[in-house]
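Morning. Coffee machine broken again, so started the prediction first thing and wrote up yesterday's gels while waiting. Chain of 332 residues, entered below exactly as on the submission form.
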Amino acid sequence: MSTLDGRILVTGGAGFIGSALVWALNQRGHTNIVITDLLGCDEKWKNLVPLKFADYVEASFFREQLRHSPAAFGKFSTVFHLGACSATTEKDAAYLIDNNYNVTKELAAWSLSQEARFIYASSAATYGDGAQGMDDTSDELSRLRPLNMYGYSKHLFDLHAQREGWLKRIVGVKYFNVFGPNEDHKAEMRSLVNKAYQQILTSGRVQLFKSHKPEFKDGEQMRDFLYVKDAVEMTLHFAEQATAAGGLYNLGSGEANTWLTLTRAIFSALGREPAIDFVDMPEVLRGKYQYFTQADTSKLRATGYVRPLTPLAASVRDYVQNHLVTGKKLGE
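Came back before lunch.
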């Protein structure tokens, strides 16, 4: 049973994953979509231009209206809550608590009250350094120790949803390292693929952080890299299979690849020989840096998700050749 046939709300719909999700909905023929976001002064509005949707509402206005009248915007069958501050370096804890925690609480309670399917973005950052594992089947969420305030703001809502008994009825998706088109506006939070492409255009070389742990050689820190086109397919699965159990789910490739592997794939996509320099990691990041992430996606697969993952080299090639080189947004 799918909940995508009614009205759909996408918060953060002008952002990276949000706009990719709207694009994927459009690919399926869905346009009865209301988008909220905080457009601000950057150029993420450009992500909206090729997309088809019924209405756009500034997120601050949307929140304020719902507080006064929960029925102000009518009913929705599905709510994808992807709007958040995703900066792992953000230091304003009060802002993160309000924007990432309080808003999510309000939207989840509102969605449940109108029986809408609520699917929200948690994060692999909730796992911290991975010392407590990256297991999405464990109910012992309080054991996790996020390394930064962003991860903690996401973790707080996971804990709240568990205490309220909501996790049986809603879905939290823990994105790992997502990369792909429509991330240009993210400044320092852009993926290495995007940053490296710009570095190669400028200097022909790419800078990677040196390792500050002896068990990892320079460039051999490992991450689970997930192409955004796969990330949104996984996310939509929880609306298309709305009878699937609620709870928290890892969304990743299921593979850990080194930064060197990723960087070489970028050079290959451009038909160039790798030229890599290693630079010191800033002090501010050293205690908050994840050296290894890898998603166990067996819980996702157990819900009936059978779509194959795009191999890393193919993902990088598609992103570089069809989006970065051409400047095309999703939908263009």
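Residues 8-176+224-254+294-309 form a domain with the Rossmann fold fold (CATH 3.40.50.720). Going to sketch it on the whiteboard this afternoon.
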